[in-house]
Every structure is written in structure tokens, then in C-alpha cells.
Design brief:
elongated; mainly alpha
């Protein structure tokens, strides 16, 4: 077994690492496409980024284990980075443009379907429910008017016990003062 440098094997490993970097770029674009399609809160974006880095770390580990038996070589990390950068500057731009266009078309189609099919159905269901609930609204109006009349009668007629007791006390107090004033005037 020779212990020399195998340039052809290392070149192949370098190109494989570049391919792995391109796969990482494609994976990140998948996360970006979902963020474009659906509004994503910041916490979810953070969780997606952490998930992306965990996946990249696991894939890099398995790649290093399969190519160099787990030995760390700088040219493999350079290859991964270079592959990701080359992907994002070339094929990644095309993927993102196409995905944005597809997302816009799907959203427009969904808006059209909602406007043409679901909105009339919603309006019909709303109209039917209003027609069916009309007698109940009539009963509701009768109940409201009855409750208002009861409140008015309590206020106007003074049938509340507190008001009767209070009016008797005021009347008694008034009579006592009147009689007290009357007795003072009669005295010379």
C-alpha cells in the first residue's frame, strides 16, 4: 500500500464537496421558498435556520466519514463553501426567480378560485341564514322592548322598595321640621 498523495482522489473529493455545498444551497433555497410562499414569524425563521445548520452539520459529518474516514481536510471545507457560493450565484438565482413566479401564479389562481367559487357560496349561505333567523330577530326585538318597558316602569312608578322607604323617611322628616317651625312661630 502506497502512502503517497493521490491527487486524482483528492480532486474527486474536492468536486464531491462542491456538490455537497450546492446541495446545501438548494436546501437553503427550499427554506427561502417556503418563507416567500407563507409569511413566517421571526421565531420560526430562527428555528428553520437552526434546523438548516443542524442538517448541514450532520450531512458534512457523514460526508467526511465516507470520504476520508473522518479526517478533517481544509480543501473539503473550501469545496463545500465554494459549491454553495457558486450555486447561489448561478443556479440559485434561476431557482428563486422561477419559484417566485410560480408562487405568484398559484396565489393569483387561489384568489381567482376564492372570488369566483367560494365568495358566492359564502354570500348565499349568509343570505339563507339571515332569512332563516329573521323570526328570531323579531322575537329578540320584542324581548328588548319588553325589558326596556320593565325598566321604565320601575323608574317612573317608584315601585322599588328602597324608594318607598326613602320617600316615607323624607316625608316624616319634612313633617317634623314643619311642625317644629310652626311651634316656634307660635311662641311669643
Amino acid at each position: 500500500m502506497e502512502l503517497g498523495i493521490h491527487l486524482a482522489q483528492q480532486t474527486l473529493q474536492f468536486f464531491q464537496s462542491m456538490l455537497l455545498g450546492a446541495v446545501f444551497g438548494l436546501l437553503y433555497d427550499a427554506f427561502r421558498i417556503t418563507r416567500i410562499a407563507v409569511r413566517t414569524p421571526r421565531k420560526v425563521v430562527f428555528a428553520e435556520d437552526v434546523l438548516f445548520f443542524v442538517i448541514c452539520a450532520i450531512l458534512s459529518f457523514f460526508f467526511l466519514m465516507s470520504t476520508l474516514d473522518g479526517k478533517l481536510r481544509l480543501f473539503l471545507f473550501v469545496g463545500i463553501g465554494l459549491g454553495a457560493v457558486l450555486y447561489s450565484l448561478t443556479l440559485g438565482v434561476l431557482v428563486m426567480k422561477v419559484s417566485r413566479t410560480i408562487i405568484r401564479m398559484v396565489k393569483a389562481a387561489l384568489r381567482f378560485v376564492i372570488r369566483v367559487f367560494f365568495r358566492p357560496v359564502y354570500r348565499l349561505v349568509y343570505w339563507v341564514s339571515r332569512q332563516l333567523l329573521r323570526p328570531l330577530r323579531f322575537l329578540e326585538d320584542i324581548c328588548k322592548k319588553t325589558f326596556q318597558r320593565c325598566k321604565y316602569r320601575l323608574k317612573v312608578q317608584g315601585k322599588v322598595l328602597y324608594n318607598r322607604v326613602r320617600s316615607r323617611l323624607v316625608l316624616k322628616d319634612f313633617k317634623m321640621r314643619k311642625s317644629a317651625h310652626g311651634t316656634q312661630k307660635n311662641k311669643p
